[in-house]
Amino acid sequence: MCGIIVYSGHRPAVPLTMDCLRRLEYRGYDSAGIAYIQQNKLQVIRSRGKLDQLEEKIGQHDVYHATTAIGHTRWATHGLPTETNAHPHTDNNKELALVHNGIIENFQEIRNSLEQRGYVFYSETDTETILLLISDKYKHIREKANSEDEAIARALSQALQEVEGSYALALINLNSPNEIWGARHSSPLILGAGTGENFIASDIPAFLPYTKDVVFLEDGELAKITANGWEVYDASSLNRIDKQINRIDWNVQSAQKGGYKHFMLKEIMEQPQVIKDCMAGRIDSANQRVILPELDHVSVPEQVHIVACGTSYHAGLWAKYIFESWSRVPVHIDIASEFRYRDNIFRENDLVLAITQSGETADTLAGLRIAREQNVPVVGLCNVMGSSVARESDGVIYTQAGPEISVASTKAMCSQMAAFLLLALYWGESKGTLSTEFLQNSIQDFISLPGILNSELARMQESGQEFAAKYSRSRSFFFLGRGINYPLALEGALKLKEISYIHAEGYAAGEMKHGPIALIDPEFPTLAIAPHDDLYTKLISNLQEVKARSGPVIGLTHPGSDLNLEDKWEIPKMWSALNSFLILPALQLFAYEMAVYLGKDVDQPRNLAKSVTVE
Ligand code: M6R
Hints:
- It is built from 16 helices and 26 strands.
- By secondary structure, it is of the alpha/beta class.
- The chain folds into two domains: 3-248, Glutamine Phosphoribosylpyrophosphate, subunit 1, domain 1 (4-Layer Sandwich), CATH 3.60.20; 263-597, Rossmann fold (3-Layer(aba) Sandwich).
- The strands form five sheets. The chain has an eight-stranded antiparallel sheet, with helices on one face. A six-stranded antiparallel sheet has the order 5-6-7-8-12-13, covered by helices on one side.
- Helix 7 runs parallel beside helix 12 and helix 13 packs parallel to helix 16.
- The longest helix has 35 residues, at 436-470.
- Residues 309-312, 356-358, 361, 364, 407-409, 494, 498, 608, 611-612 line the site of 5-amino-5-deoxy-1-O-phosphono-D-mannitol.
């Protein structure tokens, strides 16, 4: 939700900020802007639309002398995506400019009070409210303060105490042009420590080409950067806080397209490697067992409560099947936005599993906090190192998938499933619910999975292309599956709708006859996930019901299946739950090819943002 980048250093700050913003564009892309100080003037350039439009406007200015800048790419919450509502916003004296990610809940109250005192608002945003509040404090403090530095720090501290809601923000000040301040509460903000240059950003990939040394900022902290240094303070007391620098091992290429047309395609194709990376260090091949040192201190729970959103929720639903069947651990699963407002019942020895690629999803984080308040241990399953969920959990399993840039999540789900498969085997072994033979077969087949998937992906993409072209005129789609394939049906539908804007619904195949089948007609196709598993014959009966109503069906199945369909999509057969790792990319590629065929913006679908850090 909105991307923030802040730079102070030795290079021309505006082009550099634009370069960093490009790697943040996935967080929001309805408008963008930058602010910098040049020739003793605070300059702001903003534009609605994507970064190309901003770049075009910047091209009309001489921007090469500034060495500090702040930039923002927006996902609108308050106010339409217009230029006036785009960030940065400036105060009434044109001395301060601010960028913000989050939602200020008491903005109306603060705005009314500021308007009564003569402040003029130019936008409909909640952001302008914080800025003018800071400006108001600054005006009064400045007269008595010993330095600009002190005045702005105190103004920020006082203003933030009056603000309710979530924010990550950055502030540039004409009166001390080399310093930039950042603050966070419930929205991510990371400091990048370079040599002769420093950064603050919403996410690590923004500054990854320039530094891999990062400092994770916590809620209630203020950060100040200049070209030659950085400092972190407690936002209330303004006391200095010692922070640790962490070295990130992501490489720059992993945050670039690497020759692919879209990040989404690149990330789908990376899945064989993603499975290998998730396994790395977690399989003791000599003894054919799973090792998860990060869970050494967490005993096998009596019940698991899974909390997640979107694709991560689908991964959690998939995990329920193997946790219950292999490890015999009962699982309750909730969409995080429901979990957080439900009267949950926790028992002794329960565990909450918070699943999130970004580690910053507001609802999932809220679920985690609720569990911790009730003394239920939480394990976070995250991709992003040092993210809020990772830091606030009692234990973290990193999925090790590398940066996921495309808004449509693909490799993250594959890595989450890989981690769950390991966890189910780990718990199963600890509880003695799995035979040695089962454990060995699973581990051996899991090790061979990346190779099989790798050799299949190109063929899968061709099939995806063929079926996408054939069904591109469809206005709606069903995705059906049973058992462990049901969560995949939900995911297939989510992928199709979010990037191609075709209405799609995922259903448990057995549920069709309870209502949805009324929609079936010759124009309403179904993609049926029909591997040769225990529920195959049951699924066939459900498909007969669809066909009897003249509904076209694409059957995603195994070679040799007796599915009597015109459109059969065959993928290799694997053992048990491992089939899911071949079904998932087929669904992703179908959605991808459909979006490409229809000319949609694959990596940045309309109305969406990558990490949803607001409620
Ligand atoms: O970062 P998270 O895994 O917590 O994100 C959860 C959802 O916002 C995310 O999976 C979303 O549904 C994706 N756009 C799906 O492709």
